[in-house]
Amino acid sequence: MSGPAVVLFDFGGTLDADGIHWAPRFHGAYRTGGGTVEYPAFEEVFRASDRALAGQARVRTLGFKALIEAQTQLLLALLPDGAGIDATQVAARFHADALAVVARNRPILERLSARCRLGVVSNFSGNLEPCLQELEVRRYFSVVADSAIVGVAKPDFRIFVGVLSELDAPAAGAWMVGDNFEADIRPASELGMRTCWLGPLDRPLPMRAAPTVRIARLPELEEALRCTG
Fold this sequence. Notes:
The protein is α/β, with parallel strands linked by helices. The protein has two domains: 6-19 and 103-228, 3-Layer(aba) Sandwich (Rossmann fold), CATH 3.40.50; 22-97. It has nine helices and six strands; from the N terminus they run E-H-H-H-H-E-H-E-H-H-E-H-E-E-H. Strand 2 (117-122), helix 5 (128-134) and strand 3 form a beta-alpha-beta unit. Helix 2 (39-54) crosses helix 3 (64-78) and helix 3 (64-78) packs antiparallel against helix 4 (87-115). The chain is globular. The mean pLDDT is 95.
C-alpha cells in the first residue's frame, strides 16, 4: 500500500503526550507538588491562566520550556494554595514528562516525513514555531498552522482548508491525528479527511461520529496507517 499523501497532527496532547490534555497534566504536577484543589475547579483556573498567557505580548517569543514556566507562574498565582507550591518543581515535572514523549515520537515523525508530507494544525498561542524548533521536530513538518497566527482556531474548517491548500492536497488524501474529538476529529472527518483519534481507549466515543481509527499511543500510528492504506 502506498500510504497517505499527507498527515496532519495536533500539537498539545498529541505530539507531547498520549492523548492527555495540558490541564490534567498540569493538575498532576500540581498535586504532586502538594496542591489540594480538585480537578474540576482546577480546570477552570487553568483556562483562566490560558487566557492570561495569550494576552501577554511576550508569549510569541517563548520556547517550549519558557512557555511552561510562564503558564505555571500564572496558574499558581490564580490558585488559592498556589503561594505554597514550588513553581519550579511543577514546571520541571510537566516539562520532563513532555520531553520524554516527544523524544519517543521523534523517530516516528522522521520515518513518516520520509514517506509523506506532514503538518501541524494547533490551537496555540502564537509561539508554536519556536516550541517545535526547541523540541527538534520542526524539520519534519512542511506546514505549521498556529491558530493565533492564522487567526482561525479549530474546529473552524478554514484552518484545515488553509493547510491542505498550502500543501496542494485534497482532503481525501489526508489524515488528521489528534486527541480532541470536537476540535480535531469531527471537523476533519466532515471535510472528508481520514482521522486518527489518540487517547486512552476507555475515553467514551461520541455517538454521532467515529474516527477512522483510534490509538492509545502515537507509536501505534504507523501500523494504523499501513492497515488502512
